[in-house]
Hints:
mainly alpha, disordered C terminus
Amino acid sequence: MSRMKERVTISVEAEVLETVREEIAAGEAPNLSAAIEVALRDRARTRALDRLLDEFAAHHPDQPLTDAERSWARNALGGSGSATE
């Protein structure tokens, strides 16, 4: 099933762009658009997981989550890191 795509223009630091182009050359991504889309999806997923963990923490204030527990939860639930990455 094909989803509607929207064309946008972005500015990216040259070093970041070079890294993505190397991934494309290595066959790790089919093209620049796909690589950026995956990165944006990963960021959205990570932010959603962080919100879920924050909600859990708010409901259990007597049991604060450690950084190690948050990291474990992100890995277990398919997140890639913190929302600030």
